Amino acid sequence: MKPLRIGLLGIGTVGGGTFDVLTRNADEISRRAGRPITITHVADKNTTLANQVVAGRAVVTDDGFAIVRNPDIDVVIELIGGYSFAKQLMLEAIANGKHVVTANKALLALHGNEIFAAARAKGVIVAFEAAVAGGIPIIKALREGLVANRIEWIAGIINGTTNFILSEMRSKGASFADVLAVAQAKGYAEADPTFDIEGIDAGHKISILAAIAFGIPLSFDQAYVEGITKIEAIDIRYAEEMGYRIKLLGIARRRETGIELRVHPTLIPTKRLIANVEGVMNAVLVKGDAVGATLYYGAGAGASPTASAVIADLVDVVRLIDTDASHRVPYLAFQHDKIGTEPVLSIDDVETSYYLRLRVDDKPGVLADITRVLADNHISIDAMLQKEPEEGEAQADIILLTHETIEKNVKRAIAAIEAQPTTGAKVVLLRLENLA
Ligand code: HSE
């Protein structure tokens, strides 16, 4: 049968991996797909490098538009990343009737609603398994495998760089800055690691997962995003003493009043499987009402794992290319005219548990004053740890874990505690999820 002809935009790490895996496993893949899949054209601004990877097996150009307009190409793989240029190319590919496979979570999180509308109008597929958690088939699982369920919540370690940093901080007792330097030296973190360490990359990914879990539009602009730059080694240690591990989680949860959509460092019980996902690995926990909790684990980045997801999408395109568009799995899992309007809740209205580290005078009545403030704000204490003051110091650390409460109550209580003369420093607030 005639090969599916692919135009590849960007032959960096993931593009090179896709070229390699597609070549290496060509027979196995075409046995599954029913026809060969061939990258016939490659566009990259670095044509020297592209020619080295391709070694004469595809036409190389530095002009992406030549690919998206080429009538001999069936599918465009977009692996150049970023928003502006990638968006132009993708919309142009769609306008030219090409199916598109992409790993670009930033583009989908910000402009996915527009891109999917354009694709629907043209009847083409936009597939994005590689956009979330690299090689883990979490999009497939959520859109298809769990289709019977009302999804209740998702909690994911969906950024490998920050998971590596937190794992190293915990195992070596090192500071954030020192471990970030190691992550950059190892090539895990980008030279500009902002998107990773500030939680933005995880925010893009959880926005995509929330859309396909709950049938809502892509809502990254309403997500609460907090990274790991302020995490101190001491809090990792105290959390450990109390039976918790700190992970950067992307969380999406359905509440009666709306959807919680948030990324932040989170204490989770050490005994949970997901708490033991270390280094650059990713894991996503999904709670469905019928199936219960399911956990997906694997490599969230890297050439071959991400290529694995890109090629899975290509095979889906082969299988669906001749079907009526209305018979395909909807882009965002739900029929487009059934997308919900539930609001994304502000972080102040989020309901979770808290870890609070207080620095206070070590004298009678101080703890009573603190617990009174908490009670006045409807906050119930779950556990407490008081550390001995250091030699020669008059203040001690008190760590409080709360039961679930509304965040604005906690912020009000913190303001009252910080106003007390016996409090010596700003209160450290971290959120805690039991994931039971
Ligand atoms: N920078 C991401 C991570 C990989 O560290 O997980 C690409 O999504």
What this model shows, in words?
By secondary structure, this protein is of the alpha/beta class. The chain has 3 domains: 4-135 and 303-338, 3-Layer(aba) Sandwich (Rossmann fold), CATH 3.40.50; 138-299, Dihydrodipicolinate Reductase, domain 2, CATH 3.30.360; 351-432, ACT domain (Alpha-Beta Plaits, 2-Layer Sandwich), CATH 3.30.70. 37% of the residues lie in helices and 25% in strands. Helix 6 runs parallel beside helix 11 (200-214) and helix 8 crosses helix 9. 47% of the residues are buried. The mean pLDDT is 96. The structure holds L-homoserine. L-homoserine is lined by residues 159-161, 196, 201, 300-301. L-homoserine (HSE) binds at residues 159-161, 196, 201, 300-301.
Q: How are the secondary structure elements laid out?
A:
Layout: E1 4-9, H1 13-24, H2 26-33, E2 37-43, H3 47-54, E3 59-61, H4 64-68, E4 75-78, H5 84-95, E5 99-102, H6 105-122, E6 126-127, H7 138-145, E7 151-157, H8 160-172, H9 176-185, H10 194-197, H11 200-214, E8 224-225, H12 233-241, E9 244-255, E10 258-269, E11 281-288, E12 292-299, H13 303-320, E13 351-361, H14 366-376, E14 381-386, E15 395-402, E16 405-406, H15 407-418, E17 428-432
Parallel strand pairs: 1-2, 1-4, 2-3, 4-5, 5-6, 8-10, 10-17
Antiparallel strand pairs: 7-9, 7-11, 9-10, 11-12, 13-15, 13-16, 13-17, 14-15
The structure holds L-homoserine.
